[in-house]
Structure formats: C-alpha cells, structure tokens
Design a protein that fits this description.
The chain is α+β, with helices and mostly antiparallel strands and 387 residues long. 40% of the residues lie in helices and 21% in strands. It is built from 14 helices and 13 strands. The strands form 3 sheets. Strands 5-6-1-7-8 form a 5-stranded mixed beta sheet. Strands 9, 10, 11, 12 and 13 form a 5-stranded antiparallel beta sheet that branches.
Length: 387
C-alpha cells in the first residue's frame, strides 16, 4: 500500500517566536543567540538571511554581515512551551508522529483520509491550525516516504506546501545537489564531486563499482534514495527502540559549556517523552559528530530502568565529561538517546525504599504538571555540577 507521509518543519522557529512575542521585532533582521565574544547564532530570522546570516554561525561574523541586525537572547523554556502546543496539533491529525527535534516531525497519515481528507488537504489544514493557534508558519512536505517528504518540505520555505508524487520523482530529484541525500555531508560531497558526481542525477548515472569505491557500504542506501526509494517507517515514541533528540550546528561548536546546555535541553525533553508514554530507559547513548562528519557514540547503562530527569542527566553528563576530558574537539552535531526501553510497569521492584529517588520522582511529576498547565517558562533546571 502506498503510504502517505508528511514532514512538518517550522520556519525560523526561535526567531519567529521572538517576533511573535515582541511586535517591535517583526519585519526586522534578528539574530537569536548569545552576544558575547564566543556567542553563536541559534536562529537567524528570514529578514537576516539575505545578508548571509544563519544558525550556528559565530555571532561576531553575523553582526559584521548584518550590522543593523537585532540580537535577542535565547529563551529555550518558551520555545519548548510552543513546541508542546505544536505537537498537540500534530497528534490531533494522527497518532503516528515521529519527533525529530523541537520543531520538526514526520506524520504518517495513511488511513486518516476519512477523518481529515487526502494528504494534501491534511497538510493544508495542519498549516492553517498552526497559523491560527500559534500565529506561526510551518512548511510541509507530502510524499510516499520519509526521504521525499523531508526533501519536499525544504523546497519552498518559508510557509510552503510541496507535494512530491510518484510522477514527480524523476523530474524533481535529478537536478538537486547530491548533498540533499541524507548522510551526504560536505566532505563526502567533495569526494563525489572529484568524480563529477554533483547532482542526484549524477548518482543515478554512476556505475555501481564507482559508488562502491567512493561510498563503501553506504553505496546501496545512497543509490536507493537517489531513486526516491525509502522504506523506513514513521516510528512513534511508544514503538521506538529508543527515544532521542539531536541538534546539528551549521558550524563546529568549540565551547563545551554550550554543548552541555544543549544536552540538558535534550535530556529534559527525552525524559518528559518517556514519562508521557510510561516508558523507562536502561541506559543512555551520546552521539557526537565532528566537523569532518566522523560520528562516534558513547553509551552507559543505568543501575535500573528509569524515567527520572536527574538520573538521565547525571549519566549523560558523565558520558560527555569522560569523552570531553580525554578527546574533546569541536562538535558539528550532539545528540542524546534513552535506550533499552521498557514499560514503566515492567521489571522487578526494588526491595528497599529510596526516599531520594521518590523525591526526584515527585519533583518530575510536579515539573510536568506545572509545564502542562503553565508552560515551560514557569520552571527551569540548571546545568548543575560538571565534575
């Protein structure tokens, strides 16, 4: 059966929220991020982008490119609050929602036609709901698989609604740069370009032997994506083997404290998703990608499955500090995953009471309740001890 997949990606999410909350910023170039000597742009508004400003760029560089830009400090609690509202909207159309980040998700709307109409109608309704309830815009891609849907959502930003149907694949894909294929970073793209493989069409025309020599075991995956073939399913949190969050930066981040701050946001989000779906994690995995796109992972188990934010944060921080203490280098991507998931009701109960653990569980429940009722700006956590 032909699947019907949507990819929803909010437009300049952090900057758009700042412009929403402060009308004086609307229509002006703004840079969300830290304005200190080593500050980095978290998001650039669309008004700032024609000047060459973009996310993960050194703030000093962005300010030179656009001297009249307005710098606004990040408010992650506010962004998480809006994200929660966004995902409530997405889940009102289908329970099959796979979060990718705070402002991005896949939806499988196969079978939802009776309630909401065909996939294009659903995409239009979803965009109108986001605009009406959040006063923000989203770009949506509609296709038969995840790769094509994500590709489609990026073709007409901002506020786009793009469909890649079966008859569009051979028209739309071939002219696109090879970097549009998942997993093809700048380093690999340069290697392919050395063999005159610059577009997806060039990948299609390349011989199997050439791709194997250039891409190794990844050659077949890349060839299938170049043909528009992607059989991966949309996986919800409740069905996932792990629950994860990750962030890709446009430039390498050399400040460990900046990365720790991003990890804390990821841990809090993952912990809340575990509790929402009544799951517990048996360990965590840290994913680190360097500037040359080499990717490593570091994992650690916990003493017993948990959904506690403090345990997940302590374990994640220990893994990060162990790596950073020996081999830190600038990071292009950082991600955290809760792995080895079990139902919250599964497993053996501890024979001994743990007052400290019960206190943290009550704290998590209280924080979740406050966030659900008043939004994320009502409460926040600190980074804590790094030692």
């Amino acid at each position: 059966m032909l699947r019907r997949i949507l990819h929803v990606d909010m437009d300049a999410f952090f900057a758009a929220i700042e412009q929403l909350d402060n009308p004086r910023l609307r229509g002006k170039p703004i840079l969300v991020g830290s304005d200190d000597l080593r500050g980095v742009v978290t998001t650039a508004s669309y008004e700032a982008r024609p000047f060459g400003c973009h996310s993960a760029q050194p703030m000093a560089v962005a300010k030179r490119l656009c001297p009249h830009a307005i710098v606004v400090p990040t408010r992650f609690e506010r962004y998480r609050e809006v994200s929660d509202e966004l995902f409530e909207i997405l889940e009102s159309f289908t329970p099959t929602v796979q979060p990718l980040s705070i402002d991005e998700a896949f939806l499988d709307v196969t079978g939802a036609e009776r309630l909401h109409g065909d996939p294009v109608e659903i995409a239009g309704k979803l965009k109108r709901r986001v605009r009406g309830q959040l006063s923000l815009t989203a770009s949506v891609g509609v296709a038969a698989n995840k790769f094509l849907a994500k590709l489609a959502s990026d073709l007409e930003k901002p506020d786009g609604l793009t469909v890649i149907g079966p008859g569009d694949v051979d028209r739309i894909l071939p002219p696109l740069p090879v970097g549009k294929i998942w997993g093809i970073g700048p380093k690999t793209a340069r290697r392919l370009e050395g063999m005159c493989i610059r577009t997806i069409g060039d990948v299609r025309r390349a011989s199997e032997r050439t791709l194997k020599r250039l891409l190794g075991d990844d050659a077949e995956r890349v060839r299938r994506l170049a043909a528009g073939i992607d059989e991966r399913e949309v996986v919800t949190d409740s069905d996932a083997r792990q629950i994860s969050q990750e962030q890709t930066f446009r430039i390498n981040i050399a400040e460990a404290e900046h990365i720790r701050g991003e990890l804390l946001e990821q841990v809090q989000q993952v912990a809340r998703r575990l509790r929402k779906h009544q799951l517990r994690a048996g360990g965590v995995t840290l994913k680190i990608r360097y500037g040359d796109f080499e990717t490593i992972t570091r994992s650690r188990t916990v003493d017993e499955p948990t959904d506690r934010t403090d345990v997940l944060w302590k374990t994640t921080l220990e893994v990060f500090n162990a790596w950073a203490g020996k081999s830190f280098q600038p990071v292009r991507l950082i991600g955290m995953a809760a792995k080895n998931l079990t139902s919250a009701g599964a497993g053996q109960m501890s024979l001994f009471a743990d007052p400290a653990g019960e206190k943290h569980q009550r704290l998590d429940r209280a924080v979740d309740s406050i966030v659900d009722r008043f939004g994320k700006t009502a409460v926040r956590r600190g980074l804590g001890n790094h030692d």
